[in-house]
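Q: How do we represent a protein-ligand complex in a form that can be generated cell by cell?
A: Start from the inputs.
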Amino acid sequence: MAEIIGGYFTSHVPAIGGAMHRGAQQDPYWQPFFDGLPPVRELLARKKPDVAVVFSNDHGLNFFLDTMPTFAVGAAPSYANADEGWGLPLYKTFPGHPALSWHIIEALVEDEFDVTMCQKMLVDHALSIPFELAWPGVEAWPIRIVPIGINTVQHPLPSARRTLALGRAVNRAIASWAGDEKVLIVGTGGLSHQLDGARAGFMNPSYDQFCLDHLAADPDALTRDSIHDIVRQAGTQGVEILNWIAARGALGEAAQEVHRNYHLPISNTAAATVWLEPEPA
Ligand code: DHB
Ligand code: FE
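Then emit the C-alpha cells for the protein with fe (iii) ion bound:
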C-alpha cells in the first residue's frame, strides 16, 4: 500500500530561482526565507519519497486565458521545465509516473471530478522553484511527479470548498493505489500577493496567519470565504492558496504541523514554507 509521508508547502516566487542562481541565499534580504528550507530538506532526506503529487497553477505556459482547464492532471512520461517569461535558468526535466497519474484520473472522474487529462505538459516556475528549493543542485530529480494544475488565473475559479474536496478525492485515490510508493504531497504558491492593478504590492499578514493557523487542524475554515472574498483578503495572486488547500485535502482527514516559516516580502509576496504530517485515522 502506498504511504503518504508528508506535505510540503511553499511559495514559488520566480525571483527565488534568480537568488539561488546567484548564490544569494545568505544575503540579508533572502536569508529569512531560505532559513525555512533546511528542515524540509532533512525530512525529505530521511523519508525518501518516491513520487510527488504536486498541486500548483499554470502561469500561461500550457494554458492561456483562451483555454483554461479548472483542474488539469498530468499523465505524461516526463515534464520539461520551460520559462514563460521570467528569464530563469531551466531546470532538469521531471520524470512522470503515468500509471499513478491514470489511476488518479480514473478515480477522480469516478468521484465526479471531470478533470482535463494531459498526456503532454510543461511545468513552469510554480513547480521547478519548490523542487530546486527542496533538492538544490541535484544531478537528477530523486522523485517522479504527478502534477495537478488548478486554475487560479482566469475567472471563474473553482471554490475553495471544491478545491479541498478535490484534494480529499486525490487522497482516496492514493489510498486505493496498489503500489507501495512513498508519496509526498506538494502545494505551491501564495501566500498573500498581488502583482498588478491598483493594489499591486498588497500583502495581508493577518489573513496569511489565519490560513497557516488553520491549515493543519481545520482546513474547512479556509473554505468558508467565496473566491472574491479570498481575492479581497489575499490579493489577486494570493488566491494561489487554493493549491495549498487542495494539497492539504490530499493529506487526509487529520494532519499536524511539523515546520513553519513565514517571511515577507519576497519580491511582491508574503512567502511561507510549511511541512505537515498526516495523522493515522
Ligand atoms: C511573484 C509571485 C508569484 O506567485 C508568481 O507566480 C510570480 C511572481 C512575485 O512575487 O514576484
Ligand atoms: Fe504564482
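The domain at 10-181+189-278 is CATH 3.40.830.10 (Protocatechuate 4,5-dioxygenase; Chain B). Residues 42 and 277 are 14 Å apart (CA to CA).
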